[in-house]
Amino acid sequence: MxxxxxxxxxxxxxxxxxxxxxCAGEERNGSRIRVLATTSIxxxxxxxxxxxxxxxxxxxxxxxxxxxxxxxxGDVEQxxxxxxxxxxxxxxxxxxxxxxxxxxxxxxxxxxAESLDKRRLRLxxxxxxxxxxxxxxxxxxxxxxxxxxxxxxxxxxxxxxxxIRERGLLYLNxxxxxxxxxxxxxxxxxxxxxxxxxxxxxxxxxGQAYNxxxxxxxxxxxxxxxxxxxxxxxxxxLAEHRVKAIFIExxxxxxxxxSVVEGCMRKGHVVxxxxxxxxxxxxxxxxxxxxxxxxxxxxxxxxxxxxx
Length: 308
What we know:
Layout: H1 2-21, E1 33-37, H2 40-49, E2 54-58, H3 73-81, E3 84-87, H4 97-106, E4 109-111, H5 139-156, H6 161-186, E5 195-200, H7 204-210, E6 213-218, H8 228-241, E7 245-249, H9 255-266, E8 272-277, H10 292-307
Parallel strand pairs: 1-2, 1-3, 3-4, 5-6, 7-8
């Protein structure tokens, strides 16, 4: 009960500070405009689009699971001092969703994935309100959302409109080339080998885009935990379809998937860990997967190499 009360008080304080902070002017003489991204993926996108007159920071570092992330007292200063907050939305930042939605309504924040037409999104429930947030794992959907972000930034910051337009166009061309490369690389895999098995259900857009059957141990949110039935059903599926490899994720514990490997061995089917994929967060800034482009390239190389 005390924890709930403390969380409620903290949320109220944070919202108040953020809403008050949003009243400040944004165009300053001699100071950079502070833009805060919730995830490392969005931070990289913004760094490619915005010129040096903007300071881009990411709230969540490499390998941090946004589903489980909980704003701390130390985050209040970053959030309140930011001139703009860019977040994914669609409940990706689960424990911060309410705060971010309020800020979006106040004009302080932009919801990246929610800028897409709902027809582009994967519906997760019959109520029509819950959608899969993992749009970045399909490069074409990422391009569409990035186009919306660029339009928003150009309108919000007219003094930097020309630079944002130029940098944005260069970045969109880079992403278009990345999508072409993905399709060419995956082309070497026969349809029968295109079965992608991961820790949680993050790769459905990837599967739609690049023609993969996608299976996972738990659902869209990593808040869920795999039970014995989940493990048994996945083991049976892998054995039946003679799947060669399954993949752990950089922001999810590999423990449950290792139990799947052991279960397959007991059924006489050998399946291996095909490598680590980056799903909800970038890798370390010094690694190849420290950028969105590098993350996608890493994933494709891991998947194609392990399933051939």
